[in-house]
Amino acid sequence: MSTAETLRSAAEVFPDEVVTHATVRHLQLPHETGRFALITLDNGFDHKKPTTFGPRSLANLDAAIDQVEAEALAGEIVGIGLTGKPFVFAVGADLKGVEVLSERPQALAIGTGGHDVFRRLNGLAVPTFAYYNGAALGGGVEVGLHCTYRTVSESIAAFALPEVFLGLVPGWGGCTLLPNLIGADRAVTVIVENALNQNRMLSGPKVYELGIADAIFEAADFLEQSLRWTSAVLRGEIEVGRQDPDRGEAWDQAVARGRGIADEKVHGAAPAAYRALDIIAQVRNGDLRAGFEAEDAALADLIMGDELRSGLYAFNLVQRRAKRPVGAPDKSLARPVTKVGIVGAGLMASQLALLFVRRLKVPVVLTDIDQERVDKGVGWVHEQLDMLLLKGRLSQDAANRLKALVTGSLDKAEAFSDADFVIEAVFEEIGVKQRVFAELEAVVPEHAILATNTSSLSVTEMASQLKHPERVVGFHFFNPVAVLPLLEIVRAERTDDASLATAFKVAKELKKSAVLVKDAPAFVVNRILTRFMGEVLGAIDEGTPVEVADGALAPLGLPMSPMVLLELVGPAVAHHVAGTLHEAFPDRFAVSENLGRVVTAGKRTLYVHDGGKPELDPEVAALFQVGDQVLSEEQVRARALDAIAEEIGLMLDEGVVAEAQDIDLCLLTGAGWPFHLGGITPYLDRAGVSQRVLGRRLLAPGVASVPE
Description:
By secondary structure, this protein is of the alpha/beta class. The strands form four sheets. An eight-stranded mixed β-sheet has the order 12-11-10-13-14-15-16-17, with helices on both faces. A six-stranded mixed β-sheet has the order 1-2-3-5-7-9. Strands 4-6-8 form a three-stranded parallel β-sheet. Helix 20 links the parallel strand 14 (449-452) and strand 15. The longest helix has 22 residues, at 633-654.
């Protein structure tokens, strides 16, 4: 089948493609170098809808190459350039088309179609130039790699090969061409390490430093400078020198380093990184054709795999569902927030103050029980702003303005009399929080929202003694506040729409992913984590060695093991949440006596960190009293997964969230669970756990799996 036929067939499967046009225009290069053909990739929309490559888009680029190829053979042009619309070069394949594929030949056509078009750029009668003028991701990077030369704009902040992050490989030349251009070690960094570190981006200067681009120019006159440079190259005034990469032991070491990174991040649970590394290893001899064929095969296999479908599902949750929270009231009901109050000045309260002042840029005042605590909290915020100044992320004027907005007070009446939004971050005890809210209701304006950062307590009960409980809302952040995007917004029994709408408006201004949750014990993330943590601790209490129980969930590729998570949360906090849930659901949530002993002994950490592999603190081990029932990793894992599935089924039955998708969104953004799991429900479905435990799937077939 010809390239044109392949692309026509693919287009029939994907009728909703946002089509990119490839427009050819001609210009005279400086210094009478000659006539030049410039192809511009543009989908007709502004930068908010970046340019992508679907089958029709590839066909358009193929047709443009037909035109310039004929002109080059006729001697009518001296070179060919490729650039994008303002702020965007191209951001790769249109992944919406991948989601609808149900057969391997269709998936294979994705790889061969891109290769057949892109590699033509390296076989023309004149040199080709890629001008990375804006965001370049995935196939956008790869199409440039097929060109003879590349320039990059200094202002680019989004340049990456993110495929491994989603469950794919850079399959239009990236795994083959990049290591042969910049060496295996640098390629492993771009393709595997950056992708698995939350899809880390490269800046324009870094692209140039790595050797991906041959020249770098300022954004203001980027294309003009690129064309001047092109003229100098074509005239022989500038010679672009490239060193052949080390194809010996260094290549093998780079691949081995990549496998170590993949093992650390996904523990073998997702195949994409390993397939990418296999291709990098294979192309050490410079055989590009064999590399392209390996990329085609890898793309076809991965597109037909459930890990990718889970990754795309997760991507869509984070990029789309998170921006349109299900159940949020009409935003027109939201009230303006011109001043924020925070009750408490500890670490969590201080983190909240920093976030509010940076995002809302309104006065933020902290209160606490003594001046020392208040001063410490305000001082911490000021220190963090100074650090941002030193890192160049704030100007001196901006830092000064923000610091002036953050103050402290011991007098709640004075501090909060004109506040529109007051959030408490005090000790997790219902009586304490009720007293705080009673004090606040007496001093805040009638329109002020009263929010709680509780992680597990009933918001309804917290507001039950107030005259106006309708303005109380749960506003649960995750630690560290600056890193984790999730915000669980809790509607209590009497919370009104205006208060809830204001909470969602503030969440959006804070740039958080807000999910509406019912006022149920521990809400979503902590309820699920506590349930599975309880199964792991229960296995330890019964006699399973700590290292066996702790390693049981490693095959899932979670960001950290249960015991490391327990240490991060803190034994006391975890024990408290477990107690809250045990009180609510005593048949499913146990309280570990061993964890209680750790808390009573005042131990805040579980492991000894001496520079090597962390080991269980002997003092902690000595506190444990265990039985004689020893389970295997497989048995602990099955027990934990069954418990998670049961709990999710109950949460959906109770209406804690609108749909299973919201549970996955919470785990992705609040607990850092990996994209290849899709959160958790796609994994439970494909592993058969949900069917076994609940008698049903949690998601409809095709939602996060290959369509049937």
